[in-house]
Amino acid sequence: MRGVAREAGSVRLLSGQKALVTGANSGIGRATAIRLGRAGADVVVNYVADRTAAEEVVKEIQGFGVRAYAHEADVSQEDQVVRMVSRMVDELGTIDVLVANAGLQRDAPIASMSLQEWHTVLEVNLTGQFLCAREAVKEFRRRGVVPDVSRAAGKIICMSSVHQVIPWAGHVNYASSKGGVQMMMATLAQELAPERIRVNAVAPGAIRTPINRGAWETDEAEAGLLKLIPYGRIGEPEDIADAVLVMASDLLDYVVGTTLYVDGGMTLFPGFATGG
Ligand code: NAD
Fold first, then answer.
1. Mutate to test the pocket of ligand 1, among 123, 202, 209, 234 (most ligand atoms within 8 A of CB)
2. DSSP 108
3. How confident is the model at residue 4 (pLDDT cuts 50, 70, 90)?
4. What is the CATH number of the domain that holds 56?
5. Comparing C-alpha atoms, which of 39, 142, 144, 31 is closest to residue 85?
6. Relative to the CA of 223, which of 65, 67, 107, 152 has its CA 20 to 30 Å away?
7. Ligand 1 centroid from CA 159, angstroms
């Protein structure tokens, strides 16, 4: 299989590839950066706050015998994203995989949501993905396909959410940003497929991370959440990391412009299981 080496009985799906994971010092991004490193990729661990946590992720990745470093950048700031990708090309030679993961919530009912809360969420969750994708595409194009590394010239995985399709009262900024991610992903996939650049999304359901602590940290909250998940458990960051790994690898080389829902069935309208 192209671009694949073996390691201790397991296949290193991303051997020789260079991956950038944004928001990689916490939650899903952290688990994904570690998973890609374990699969043989050199990894840039982006963070915007908490350098110590980012350095811990770097150390863990380096333990797999690959290269990694932490890079501070706010993904909503054009100059910072440009610098981040250009440093990656200088230090690691190129970028093969972008996981546009950084995201946040600023929840409020519509009448009390400030314009700043609206802007902040759109700027990080949507504009941030656009900026990272744009800079990655420039390098994918410059380098082109290197068959020994991957069948594609580059892979972009947008971290979306089940809220790209499930409306979410009290979170209009967040749901709008993820709906935007879905259409941005599909449009870029259409635009870039002829150049063998694959753009796809992974859409998590409820995953146990700091972003949604309130939804799972008490027994009562967890019980309420579980009613929305047919599979009967809250997801872990590693559930998403494994999905991103496979999406980034040549195993899914023919998958273009798709959203992979990793949600324990949350998008199956569980309320209709007994009614409707
Ligand atoms: P998290 O809060 O643990 O991680 C979010 C990361 O993004 C953090 O490292 C944070 O510092 C970083 N970040 C925020 N603003 C940034 C900026 N301007 N520049 C760079 N980094 C920035 O939460 P998580 O659950 O791991 O979230 C990761 C992604 O997964 C987000 O896009 C989120 O919307 C998505 N998601 C999460 C869930 C869930 O249930 N946890 C569900 C659906 C989608």
1. 209
2. -
3. low
4. 3.40.50.720
5. 142
6. 107
7. 9
Q: How confident is the model at residue 10 (pLDDT cuts 50, 70, 90)?
A: low
Identify which of 28, 125, 225 to mutate to test ligand 1's pocket (most ligand atoms within 8 A of the CB). 28
Q: Is residue 61 one of the residues assigned to a domain? A: yes
Q: What residue spans of the chain are helical by DSSP H?
A: 27-38, 51-62, 78-92, 115-122, 128-143, 172-192, 213-216, 219-226, 237-248
Question: For atom 41 of ligand 1, which residue has the closest CA?
Answer: 207
Q: Is the CB of residue 202 below 6 angstroms from any atom belonging to ligand 1?
A: no
- Domain presence at residue 247: yes
139 CB near ligand 1 (under 6 Å): no
Does residue 213 lie within any of the structural domains? yes
Contact of 46 with 73, CB cutoff 8 Å? yes
| CB of 26 closer than 6 angstroms to any ligand 1 atom | yes
Q: What pLDDT, on the 0 to 100 scale, is given for residue 276?
A: 76
Residue 208: count other Cβ atoms within 10 Å of its Cβ: 20
Buried b / exposed e over 54-83, threshold 16 CB at 10 Å, is bbebbebbeebebebbbbebbbbbeebbee
Query: Considering its fold, how many domains does the chain have in total?
Result: 1
- In DSSP terms, 252 is beta-bridged to none
Distance CA 128, CA 120 (A): 10
Atom nearest to 160 CA in ligand 1: 44
For residue 21, pLDDT beyond 60: yes
Which range of residues forms the domain containing residue 130?
2-263
Instruction: Let me know if residue 22 belongs to a domain.
Output: yes
Chain-centroid distance of CA 226 in Å reads: 24
